[in-house]
């Protein structure tokens, strides 16, 4: 419950931060901006999203800072091999204070007949896209101690996470920072007498480096670190109180995988895809979870009735050993990014 | 996806699949098999044979994890080593099977003191019984009929003599086979130090079907002496069940089922010139004591030892002078099958003299008989006094140092409870109980007796100085009470499979000062897969 509370708090905080970030492009502009309903400039403004809402990150001409992920005219000279950018489009208003510009291939340009990127010059800067992930993990614990709670060492884990794409390191390279919650549970009979239940709740922060190789295929690498609360219950059916125990542990992971993307919006161009309002992602990731060994001491469960609990004799519990936290994992996630 | 990615993915899936297919350690699927605990000086010893581990719980530091001592396979018996802060754990070993290596049987000595290394004596054969000398210096491990004998071939008359004071070695224990007339040992008794020709020594008396075997445990290389109790053509199953020793006039008295006689084995000296091994030779005398003796006790009559033998079937008690083989038979008002000899005064007799109490402990009688043993052969029935207790007796717990006998009464034939019998005043103080009582144990300093009900969570106790009873409400049903010898603590055992003990202050048993230890038999549960 503690972990859940922490997660909710963190999620609220993160959503608030994302909301603030999303307000940046909406600041009033003294220059003509992409307003489809007023003096449209078809050459410059990308098609409206399918739902007709004003696109976030639409091309605008901010006075001070470029919008995140916006296509912007470079201040410096384009690279020689970028003929499409040699002349700024007509009507384009260059930002007054553009950040450092990286000249790379723009994503999703298929003009050369194969999936790839057209060469564009893009700024390195803040992004601001939010992703909500539902994750399903299968972990294979290496420590035999976990056998007490499962007939096999493969445990299924589920969870949620939110990630914010905060940095465009380059045109193809994105860095996400996220906050997640993961829970896992297993149950079995041990010693032919006890029902052994294991649960854990982990709250973690992670950083994910995504490389947009193609419009739909994005290799990624992720590291995470967090706090995990492990709990164990041993009970039998002869009337004695169940034995409960729990402990906190540090947990981290490192993994790599791929994202398979589906972007909502027909006929998107490369630029448009990058800033599409909604992206669905299927993420397959493998890696290694490394947690600290967790010592578990179990004591009889407190009676529900406060009066009975207060009356109970003081009890000394017992240490049932340590759970190892090293486990290869395979994570399958569904992500909604907007 | 490139080919490299495909290969990496495939390799990862195969690796993880192989890991997940691994069966968990069988230790997690093995049912616990916990022997009844024994109390040492300040610790309790639990043995879980399923994991070959003894758990030593220090009751003075219950918050500390129980000490785990590795045992051999097949632990079947645990007992306190006499006069020592150690437990003897008999392990029958493993016959072997698919994936299981055979393992010889062993006897492990587990110390109650932390830091003391256990000693394991390899026995070889899967013995199932152990007997030890009163001082705990030696033990004889043997087979006993009817208790899980197993093995393709085994010799039921093989024994192992273990010197518990010495470290295990090639010559310790000593394995040998005792002579047999076709029977199997049923019990082993050790004598006190007997006055024999070559000096005082301890003898072992091995009881078998229709014969007994005498063995000099201090000279284990000497041949044993076997004494038949019945003629070969005698169809009766003369099974010896009780042994008494007269160490001064070295004699062994044997009582047997299906025999109307007491067998007296006088250990006569073997002349030095004829001595090839043992320095004694038993001379058998059969003492006729009427019909089916039920018990026997020795007392000093001033001019020598006498046997007092009650016979329930004949409703009398016999006084036997072993030297002259004379028997004096005295009729009783109530049948008796138990005898307790004690020194005490009596009403109208301030002299501290040997006296006997005769009673029946099977719930069939509610009266007892006192017998003044001085001049009993002359005064006969005039020395017998019968007293009514009022409730059938099902058990007795003597506390001779206080001149008390605690009689336990049954619930099926009357109100459950206890009677405190003052052996001098010959009065009884009834203590009633609202539930049947299962077992009663004296506290370490014998100032209280603790009584556990057969069900329920209240422990009863009785102050033996004031006879004031009390009770303590605990949190779980009680299965046993174990006073600790070297700590002012009484351990109350509960029936939790994970281990549950409540520790009470023996001198002031109150709920406010009690505390429990729970789950200790699951100590290091998670590490069992590492083994």
How would you briefly describe this protein structure?
Chain A has about 350 residues and is mainly β.
Q: Could you explain how this protein is built, in words?
A:
The complex is a heterodimer of chains A (338) and B (531). In chain A, 9% of the residues lie in helices and 47% in strands. Chain A is built from 3 helices and 13 strands; from the N terminus they run αββββββββαββαβββ. Chain A has helices at residues 2-22, 270-274, 306-311; strands spanning 101-107, 117-123, 125-140, 154-168, 173-190, 194-211, 217-235, 243-263, 279-291, 294-300, 315-316, 318-323, 327-337. In chain A, the strands form 2 sheets. Chain A has an 8-stranded antiparallel beta barrel. In chain A, strands 1-2 form a two-stranded antiparallel ribbon. The longest helix of chain A has 21 residues, at 2-22. The radius of gyration of chain A is 26 Å and the shape is elongated. In chain B, 4% of the residues lie in helices and 45% in strands. In chain B, strands 1-2-3-4 form a 4-stranded antiparallel β-sheet, with no helix packed on it. A 4-stranded antiparallel β-sheet of chain B has the order 5-6-7-8, with no helix packed on it. In chain B, strand 9 and strand 10 (138-142) form a beta hairpin. At the A-B interface, strand 10, strand 11 and strand 12 of A face helix 1 and strand 40 of B.
- Shape verdict of chain A: elongated
Principal-axis shape of chain B: globular
How much helicity do the residues of chain B have?
Answer: under 10%
Q: Mean pLDDT score of chain B, rounded?
A: 88
| Structure summary, number of beta strands of chain B | 40
């Amino acid at each position: 419950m503690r972990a859940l509370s922490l997660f909710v708090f963190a999620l609220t905080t993160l959503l608030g931060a994302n909301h603030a970030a999303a307000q940046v492009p909406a600041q009033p502009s003294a220059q003509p901006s992409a307003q489809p309903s007023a003096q449209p400039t078809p050459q410059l403004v990308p098609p409206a999203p399918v739902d007709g809402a004003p696109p976030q990150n639409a091309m605008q001409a901010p006075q001070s800072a470029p919008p995140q992920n916006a296509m912007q005219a470079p201040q410096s000279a384009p690279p020689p091999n970028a003929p499409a950018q040699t002349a700024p489009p007509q009507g384009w208003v260059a930002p007054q204070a553009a950040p450092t510009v990286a000249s790379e291939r723009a994503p999703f340009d298929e003009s050369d007949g194969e999936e790839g990127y057209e060469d564009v010059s893009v700024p390195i800067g803040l992004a601001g896209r939010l992703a909500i992930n539902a994750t399903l993990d299968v972990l294979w614990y290496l420590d035999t101690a976990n056998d007490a709670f499962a007939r096999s060492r493969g445990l299924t884990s589920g969870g949620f996470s939110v990630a914010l794409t905060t940095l465009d390191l380059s045109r193809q390279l994105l860095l996400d920072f996220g906050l997640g919650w993961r829970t896992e549970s297993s149950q079995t009979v041990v010693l032919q007498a006890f029902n052994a239940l294991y649960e854990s709740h982990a709250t973690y922060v992670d950083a994910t480096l995504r490389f947009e190789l193609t419009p739909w295929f994005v290799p990624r690498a992720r590291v995470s670190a967090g706090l995990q609360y492990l709990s164990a219950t041993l009970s039998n059916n002869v009337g004695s109180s169940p034995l409960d125990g729990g402990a906190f542990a540090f947990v981290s992971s490192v993994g790599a995988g791929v994202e398979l993307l589906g972007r909502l919006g027909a006929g998107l161009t490369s630029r448009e895809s990058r800033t599409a309002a909604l992206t669905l992602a299927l993420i397959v990731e493998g890696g290694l979870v490394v947690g600290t060994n967790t010592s578990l001491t179990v004591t009889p469960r407190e009676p529900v009735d406060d009066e009975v609990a207060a009356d109970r004799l003081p009890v000394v519990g017992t240490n049932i050993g340590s759970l190892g936290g090293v486990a290869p994992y395979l994570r399958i996630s569904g992500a909604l990014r907007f | 996806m490139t080919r490299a990615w495909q290969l990496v993915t495939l390799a990862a899936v195969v690796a993880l699949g192989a890991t997940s297919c691994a069966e968990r350690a069988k230790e997690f699927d093995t049912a616990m098999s916990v022997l009844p605990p024994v109390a040492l000086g300040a610790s309790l010893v639990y043995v879980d044979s399923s994991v070959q581990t003894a758990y030593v719980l220090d009751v003075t530091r219950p918050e500390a994890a129980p000490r785990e001592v590795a045992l051999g396979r097949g632990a079947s018996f645990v007992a306190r080593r006499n006069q020592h802060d150690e437990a003897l754990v008999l392990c029958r070993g493993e016959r072997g099977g698919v994936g299981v290596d055979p393992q010889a049987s062993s006897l492990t000595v587990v110390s109650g003191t932390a830091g003391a290394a256990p000693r394991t004596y390899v026995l070889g054969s899967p013995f199932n019984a152990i007997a030890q000398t009163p001082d705990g210096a030696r033990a004889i491990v043997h087979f006993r009929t009817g208790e899980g004998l197993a093995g393709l071939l085994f010799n039921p008359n093989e024994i192992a003599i273990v010197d518990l004071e010495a470290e295990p070695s090639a010559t310790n224990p000593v394995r040998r086979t005792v002579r047999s007339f076709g029977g199997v040992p049923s019990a082993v008794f050790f004598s006190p130090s007997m006055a024999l020709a070559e000096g005082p020594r301890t003898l072992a008396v091995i009881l078998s079907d229709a014969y007994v075997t005498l063995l000099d445990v201090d000279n284990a290389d000497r041949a044993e002496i076997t004494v038949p109790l019945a003629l070969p053509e005698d169809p009766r199953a003369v099974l010896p069940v009780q042994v008494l020793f007269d160490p001064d006039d070295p004699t062994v008295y044997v009582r047997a089922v299906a025999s109307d006689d007491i067998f007296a084995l006088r250990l006569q000296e073997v002349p030095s010139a004829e001595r090839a091994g043992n320095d004694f030779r038993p001379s058998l005398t059969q003492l006729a004591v009427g019909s089916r003796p039920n018990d026997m006790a020795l007392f000093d009559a001033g001019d020598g030892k006498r046997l007092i033998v009650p016979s329930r079937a004949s409703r009398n008690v016999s006084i036997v002078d072993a030297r002259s083989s004379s028997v004096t038979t005295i009729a009783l008002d109530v049948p008796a099958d138990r005898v307790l000899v004690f020194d005490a005064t009596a009403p109208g007799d301030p002299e501290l003299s040997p006296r006997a109490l005769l009673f029946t402990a099977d719930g069939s009688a509610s009266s007892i008989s006192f017998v003044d043993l001085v001049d009993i052969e002359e005064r006969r029935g005039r020395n017998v006094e019968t007293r009514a207790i009022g409730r059938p007796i099902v058990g007795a717990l003597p506390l001779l140092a206080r001149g008390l006998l605690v009689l336990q009464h049954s619930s099926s034939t009357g109100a459950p409870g206890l009677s405190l019998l003052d052996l001098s005043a010959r009065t009884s103080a009834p203590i009633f109980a609202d539930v049947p009582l299962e077992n009663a144990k004296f506290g370490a300093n014998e100032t209280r007796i603790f009584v556990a009900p057969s069900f329920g969570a209240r422990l009863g106790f009785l102050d033996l100085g004031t006879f004031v009873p009390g009770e303590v409400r605990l949190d779980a049903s009680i299965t046993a009470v174990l006073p600790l010898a070297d700590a002012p603590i009484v351990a109350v055992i509960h029936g939790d499979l994970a281990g549950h003990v409540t520790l009470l202050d023996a001198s002031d048993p109150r709920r406010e000062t009690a505390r429990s230890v729970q789950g200790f038999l699951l100590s290091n549960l998670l590490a069992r897969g590492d083994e």
